[in-house]
Every structure is written in structure tokens, then in C-alpha cells.
Write a structure and sequence with these properties.
The chain is α+β, with helices and mostly antiparallel strands. The strands form two sheets. The chain has a six-stranded mixed barrel. A hairpin with a 2-residue loop joins strand 6 and strand 7.
């Protein structure tokens, strides 16, 4: 209790200044809690409604027909009821009875045999059971503009519209956004529809109802023993939409580290404020030393105040952060139903995470400046000029080790991944080092700069950067970090948006055709020609499965490597003969078709790297049931943004002669004929799916804009953290500023003149921080956009002077506002000092 009373008394006289301490922590904690709360809200919603979202207890899905033995295994595993679904994209033509047939529309067709769904609800208008409605005709989405009694043509089928579907168990995934309106039909209606030819992109699903708890065990059994298990995607309700949950985790990790950066930036401000606070409390510390308190007891006294303030700041930040999920509901609402989003907006785990990280960061960044209590001699009570005492080396080593280790621990905790945490820590340390080096160089240059021809205010500003105790290094580091984060995030968001908007070159195709059968090629080409198509491209596709690399089975390789290799090695390989190198391809290793003794493959370079395949490796593939051996004789770099027909796997001409195949095509169509071409294709070749490029990109850009809004919210936290740091650092130096102001007034300076001196000094400090921070931002944005997003970076050098001027203006404004109290100091204070 005595320690608590002493701690509270010691804080008197510093409470106003330490409000900035609280603000630094509160802003960072709000960002951390907001990100964690949003992710937790989605997780809770998915977990609570996982059965309704899946529509069953178990789902088995494949791109090829399901072996009948799979249903037997599911029944033996405890299923009491099963349903089969075939789902694929196609085109439909609305045929209202009170008007002419509408335009062909790309739809997602779902053919159902059995009860659907077992859980959740399919809401129809007029109300009724889906199975009953399918006996009478088709059930369609309202967006087709039809009503019960109208007709819809899908392939060769013309079915009456029995009902409209207004709600069903939701499908997740990025491409689900582009699946098109839903059309339900009875599975038996597909016979004779001309929709099921080779190459049709069917997804076969088996849904099961299992009243018992055995779904998890059955999933493991199917993955191990089911026929064709490598082709199956098996999901139980307990997994709660694993693909979406994995996506949420990835987004949470990225945004969580951005939020942590705001908190760490606040920690830098905490270190500055605590350092200035300890300096201002030096006389009080000397008194405490005189009455017998040891340095470690004094440190615990001040550390207690730090933790108290950090707890208050963390609590405020956690409260604000808990409300942040509400700002993200608009974004998530485009992808997920509202009842899933709002599953649980109150997230105790997120609040605890924010409190723990806030307290940890505050304590870690306070430790190095708090070690200054060892330097205060008890003799300072009698002699103000007493020499400072040395700080034991072990104390400094422990403090800095704790700081670095703590940043690594908090980053690892926030990202739930040690490698990401280590990368964050190393990147943050490198950025701090560059900013500190730049600050030292600036101070040295300022000390040696000729000042004879400079304006007196500039002379004072330059001198202020170089003088001892000015805090130039800490100020440049804090402000430079803020500028780096803000500018890099702005550049990345801008280039991602414009990169997608401009992703389609002027010469690129405007549409793609999928599932064109070999005997349909001439007819499809004729339809395209009549529509004024130009730059028509067409290529056959042969499906295959990888079986071995250099004699080692794919199963053994996947077991050893896992990760992305599992997807690249176990997916269906879409191979296309390549007579010559396309314009959008470049050979980077080997030579195209140079070995007359082997069947040859050419692989896209990064795809080969993901598979672990090198030049001259041999691959054994199962081509439609026929084992074939190939040699990799070239690696290609592909310009995917050309939107030309490109493939991961190219095969030498003649190697796949006679293998079952289908074709894909691409062409440029005038905007005014696109719908006419789609209508003709729907009527004459109903199995062919036409995909328009620009409408899809518009949806992607719209989604990206909303994601950017969320990133801007986090960027705003970084801005506020930087401003709080700046204001706190200036406020912490108020006492020194008051004495300087009083001294300048005794020398004849006016209040306006002193304000101009402060503007010059703070402006120069902000300009230097903006200059260094913007250069760092350009490098970071370049690395992300070119290395990760594969977008060209235009090096907008104008951001350097813009950031320098903006930071200078902002710093000067905040500096003067925070120094208003010092500007009121009367000249007599200099005489008293």
C-alpha cells in the first residue's frame, strides 16, 4: 500500500504530460483489438452455423464422378441419408411468358438427387420444399427476372419456373462471387441436355446426414482409404468452412502485424515520453535516493506508474477496438451473410490480447529509458551539477535484450507464426537502424553546415537539430516510422487498385470460351467471326495427373514437403500442345523441344519451382488412364497479365495425339456484339461457357476498394499514433522549452519570433523524417508490389518531396500547438533558472 501511495504521489505534476503516453498505447491497442475482434466474429459465426452453411454433416466433392464405394463407406460410417449433386457453370436464357426471350446469362446450375439441404434452409417463393418444386420444373434466382409460370432454357432443356430461391446454404470462396445466379433442377433432367460432354467443369458432391458424432473419424477414414482419395475434397461440419477460415487466418495475420506496427510505433513514443519524464523527475529521484531507496526500487516505482498508465490506455483502446468490427460489416457483407458476420461482436479473447500486448509493449519500451535512474546521484539534492553515476552494464544489456526479445515474442504471438514474427522483428529493426543512421548523419551535417548566409530563423532551426539533448534521433525515428508506414500503405493500395483496373491491355481478349468440344470448334469460330471477333486464340486441353518425379511417387513427395507442393502436385494438370513459343512467353532455361528421344514438357518457371522440378527431370503422368513419361527440357517465364492463352504445362506437338480433350478459346469482341454472341452460343452450343473479362475485373476492383477502406482504417491508427508520439515528445520537453523561450525573450526576441524559431526547428525535423521515411516507403512498396503482387512499380519519386513537405507542415503545426505553454513563459524564468 505504501508503495502504491508513493507511486501516486510521484505522478503528481506529470499527469498532463503522461496523457500522451496513454494515447500512444490506446491507439495501438485499438488497432490490435479491432483486427482480432473482426476475425473472431467471423470465426464464431462460422462455427455456430457450420451445419447450416455446409447443408449437411459431411460433404465429399470431386471434379470427377464419385466411386459408388464412397457412398458405401459413408453409410457404414454412420450416415442415415445421402444426397448427390452435380454443379457446374453454364448459360441460361430467360423466357417470360408475357414477353420475348431474354439475353443469355451465365448461371451456376445445381442438379439435385435427394434431399437438399439437411440443415439450414432453402427459402422459396412461393413457399414449399425444394424437392417438390423440382418435380414441377426449375427453381431460379430472382435476378434472372423470371416469375413462377415463366420458362427458362438451359442447354436443350426448356423447363417451367416452379419457384424462386431467395436463400440457400452459402458457398464461400473468391470465385463464388463470379458463379452467376443459381438455377436448381432435378438431376434426372440433365439427361439429354447436351450439357455433360467431356470437358464440362462439373463438381460432383455427396452430402450425408449423420446424427452421431462420427463425422470427424469418417473424414479421416475417407482421406486414407476412399477410392481416388487424392481427387476428393472432404469436409465435415466440425471444420466450419475450413477454406474460408484459413483465408480469415491469413488476412488476420497480415492485418494483425500492421496493427502491431501501430502499437510498436506507440511504444517508440512511450520510450521518448518516459525518457523526458525521467529527466524532468531527476530532483525527485535524487531525493528518493537520499532517503534510502535503491535504484531498482526507484525503477519499480516508475515502472508501476508506467503499467498503471498502460493499463488505462489499453482499456480505452480495447473498448474502442471492440467497436471496430462494425466498420467492416459492409465489406464482409458482400461475401458472407449478415447472420454469420454478427455471430458474436463481443470478443473477450481479442480484448485480452489487446490488454496483454499493450502492457507488454509499454513495459518493454520503458525499460531502456528507466535504467537512467541508476545515473542519478544522491548528491544532486545538494549540487545540481553533480556528475551522473554509471549504469551497470548488466542492467543495460538486460533492458535491451528484453526489448528485442519482447518484440519478437509479441510479433510471433500476434502472427501465430515464428517465421512471420522473426521477419517482422528483423524488418522493424532494420528500419529503425536506417532511420537512426540517417538521423546521426543529419545531426553531423547540421553541426558542420555553414550558416553565414542563412536566415536567422533557419540558423536556429539547424542549430536545434544538432544541439545535445535535442531528441533529434528519437524524433526522426518516430516520425520516420509513421511516414514509412503511411506512405507505403498508400502506394501499395493505389497500385493494387490501378493495377487491377489496368490489368487488361488494349490488345487483350475481352472474353474466354470454356468447354468447347473438338467437333464444335468450326461452329464456334463461325459464331465468333459473325460477331466481329478479332485476335481469336484457341487451344486444346488434355487433363492428366502427376504420378512420379524422377521415379519418386507423388504421395511420398507430398508427405515430405506439404505446403503449396501438395496443390501443384496433386491437382489435375491441364496440358496443351505448344508448337511454338507464344509471344507472352520467354524461355529462361533449356530449349524448346530439343530431345528427339523423349516426350518433352515445358513448365512455367515458378510452377516448376513450387513442384520442386528442375530442368531435365523426368515426370510420369497419368493421361486419361494411360501412363506416360516426359522430360522437362525448358522453363518459361509467362506474362500472365497479357490475358492471352497461357499454360503452366506445355507439351511438344504430337505427344498427346488421340487423347480425349476439349478446347478453350479467347477473342476480342466489340462491346455491342458480346451479348449477341453469348445468346447464339447458348442456343447452338449450350455446353460452352462464355466468360466476360471486364465485368469480373470491375467486381474485383470493387472488392479491393472495400478492402482498401479497411486498410485505411488501420493506416489512420498509425497516423494518430505518430501524432500522439510527436505531441507527447514535445510536451515532455515543455520545461526545457519554457526556459529557452524565457532566455530568448531576455535577449530581445518577441513571442512571434520565438514561435518562428520553433516552426523552423520542428519543420526541419519533420522534413528530414519525411524524406527518410518516404524513401523507406518506396523501397517497401517496390518489394511488395514487384516481389509479391507481381505488379510493375512506377517509382513515384514525387512522393519524397510531398512527404517531406507534408511531414514538415504537420510537425511544425503540432510542435507549435504543443509549445503554446512554453511560449507564454515570462523572461524572469530565465533569471530564476
Amino acid at each position: 500500500m505504501k508503495w502504491l501511495i508513493a507511486m501516486l504521489k510521484e505522478s503528481r505534476g506529470s499527469r498532463g504530460r503522461l496523457l500522451f503516453f496513454t494515447a500512444c498505447i490506446a491507439i495501438g491497442v485499438a488497432a490490435v483489438v479491432g483486427v482480432a475482434a473482426m476475425a473472431g466474429t467471423l470465426e464464431d459465426g462460422l462455427r455456430a452455423q457450420s451445419r447450416d452453411l455446409l447443408g449437411a454433416d459431411l460433404k465429399v466433392e470431386s471434379r470427377r464422378p464419385l466411386d459408388p464405394r464412397i457412398e458405401e463407406m459413408v453409410r457404414e460410417g454412420g450416415a442415415v441419408e445421402t444426397t448427390f449433386i452435380r454443379e457446374f457453370p453454364t448459360t441460361a436464357v430467360p423466357m417470360p411468358k408475357d414477353g420475348e426471350a431474354g439475353s443469355a446469362v451465365r448461371v451456376s446450375l445445381k442438379a439435385v438427387r435427394g434431399v437438399y439441404p439437411y440443415y439450414g434452409e432453402v427459402v422459396l417463393d412461393p413457399p414449399g420444399a425444394l424437392q417438390d418444386a423440382l418435380e414441377k420444373g426449375a427453381v431460379v434466382a430472382p435476378t434472372l427476372g423470371l416469375k413462377p409460370g415463366d420458362e427458362v432454357r438451359v442447354g436443350a432443356l426448356v423447363l417451367p419456373v416452379a419457384a424462386l430461391v431467395t436463400q440457400e446454404p452459402q458457398q464461400f470462396g473468391f470465385m463464388a462471387m463470379f458463379a452467376g445466379p443459381r438455377v436448381f433442377v432435378a438431376d434426372k433432367a440433365l439427361e439429354g441436355s447436351n450439357l455433360l460432354g467431356f470437358g464440362s467443369r462439373l463438381r460432383y458432391q455427396l452430402l450425408a446426414r449423420m446424427p452421431g458424432p462420427g463425422a470427424g473419424a469418417l473424414v479421416r477414414e475417407l482421406r486414407a482409404d476412399a477410392p481416388g482419395a487424392e481427387y476428393l475434397r472432404i469436409e465435415s461440419w466440425r471444420a466450419g468452412q475450413p477454406r474460408l477460415r484459413r483465408a480469415i487466418v491469413r488476412v488476420e495475420r497480415y492485418l494483425g502485424l500492421v496493427a502491431l506496427l501501430s502499437l510498436v510505433l506507440g511504444g517508440v513514443g512511450v520510450a521518448q515520453i518516459v525518457r523526458a519524464w525521467i529527466v524532468s523527475r531527476t530532483p525527485s529521484i535524487a531525493v528518493l535516493r537520499c532517503i534510502g531507496m535503491r535504484p531498482k526500487e526507484v525503477l519499480s516505482l516508475f515502472a508501476g506508474q508506467v503499467m498503471l498508465l498502460a493499463f488505462i490506455g489499453s482499456a480505452i483502446g480495447a473498448t474502442l477496438g471492440s467497436l471496430l468490427p462494425l466498420t467492416f460489416l459492409d465489406l464482409a457483407g458482400d461475401l458472407i451473410r449478415p447472420e454469420v458476420i454478427t455471430g458474436s461482436l463481443f470478443q473477450p479473447g481479442a480484448i485480452v490480447r489487446g490488454l496483454v500486448l499493450g502492457l507488454a509493449i509499454a513495459l518493454l519500451f520503458s525499460l531502456p529509458p528507466l535504467t537512467a535512474v541508476w545515473r542519478v546521484s544522491p548528491a544532486r539534492v545538494l549540487r545540481n551539477e553533480a556528475e551522473p553515476l554509471p549504469v551497470p552494464r548488466s542492467v543495460g544489456v538486460i533492458a535491451w535484450t528484453a526489448l528485442l526479445g519482447g518484440i519478437l515474442a509479441t510479433a510471433t504471438f500476434q502472427a501465430s507464426d515464428f517465421e512471420l514474427g522473426l521477419a517482422f522483428t528483423l524488418g522493424f529493426g532494420a528500419l529503425i537502424g536506417v532511420l537512426m543512421l540517417g538521423a546521426r548523419l543529419v545531426m553531423r551535417a547540421a553541426a558542420r553546415m555553414p550558416r553565414e548566409r542563412l536566415h536567422p530563423y533557419l540558423v536556429q532551426g539547424v542549430a536545434g537539430l544538432a544541439r545535445p539533448g535535442a531528441g533529434t534521433t528519437a524524433g526522426i525515428v518516430a516520425l520516420g516510422l509513421g511516414v514509412t508506414v503511411i506512405v507505403s500503405m498508400a502506394l501499395v493500395e493505389r497500385d493494387l487498385s490501378t493495377g487491377l483496373r489496368d490489368a487488361v491491355p488494349d490488345t487483350a481478349p475481352t472474353m474466354f470460351l470454356v468447354d468447347v468440344q473438338p467437333d464444335q470448334k468450326d461452329g464456334v469460330d463461325s459464331v465468333l467471326a459473325d460477331g466481329g471477333a478479332t485476335a481469336v486464340q484457341s487451344a486444346p486441353i488434355v487433363m492428366a495427373r502427376m504420378r512420379a518425379i524422377n521415379g519418386v511417387s507423388i504421395a511420398d513427395i507430398v508427405e515430405q514437403r506439404g505446403g503449396r507442393a501438395r496443390w501443384t502436385l496433386t491437382r489435375e494438370q491441364r496440358m496443351s500442345p505448344m508448337a511454338e513459343l507464344p509471344e507472352s512467353n520467354e524461355i529462361v532455361a533449356g530449349e524448346l523441344w530439343n530431345d528427339p528421344d523423349m516426350l518433352e514438357l515445358s513448365l512455367e518457371e515458378r510452377y516448376a519451382r513450387d513442384m520442386g522440378v528442375n530442368l531435365n527431370d523426368t515426370l510420369r503422368l497419368d493421361v486419361q488412364g494411360v501412363p506416360m513419361e516426359f522430360k522437362v527440357t525448358s522453363l518459361r517465364r509467362v506474362e500472365w497479365r497479357s490475358f492471352s492463352l497461357n499454360f503452366f504445362v506445355g507439351v511438344e506437338p504430337g505427344a498427346l495425339e488421340g487423347a480425349p480433350n476439349f478446347r478453350i478459346a479467347a477473342a476480342r469482341l466489340p462491346a455491342e456484339t458480346e451479348q449477341q454472341v453469348q445468346d447464339r452460343l447458348a442456343a447452338e452450343f449450350p455446353n460452352v461457357t462464355m466468360i466476360r473479362i471486364r465485368p469480373i475485373l470491375e467486381q474485383v476492383v470493387s472488392l479491393l476498394d472495400k478492402i482498401a477502406d479497411g486498410v485505411r482504417v488501420l493506416g489512420a491508427f498509425t497516423v494518430f499514433a505518430g501524432l500522439a508520439i510527436l505531441a507527447g515528445a514535445i510536451s515532455a520537453a515543455t520545461l526545457r522549452r519554457r526556459r529557452e523561450t524565457a532566455l530568448l525573450k531576455t535577449l530581445g526576441a518577441t513571442r512571434r519570433g520565438v514561435g518562428a524559431l520553433f516552426i523552423a526547428e520542428y519543420g526541419l525535423l519533420g522534413a528530414v523524417a519525411g524524406l527518410l521515411g518516404s524513401i523507406g516507403a518506396l523501397v517497401l512498396a517496390w518489394g511488395f508490389l514487384e516481389g509479391v503482387a507481381e505488379l510493375d512499380f512506377g517509382w513515384p519519386l514525387w512522393t519524397v518531396p510531398a512527404a517531406a513537405l507534408g511531414a514538415a507542415a504537420l510537425t511544425a503545426t503540432c510542435g507549435v500547438l504543443a509549445s503554446l505553454g512554453a511560449l507564454q513563459a515570462p523572461p524572469r524564468e530565465a533569471l530564476r533558472g
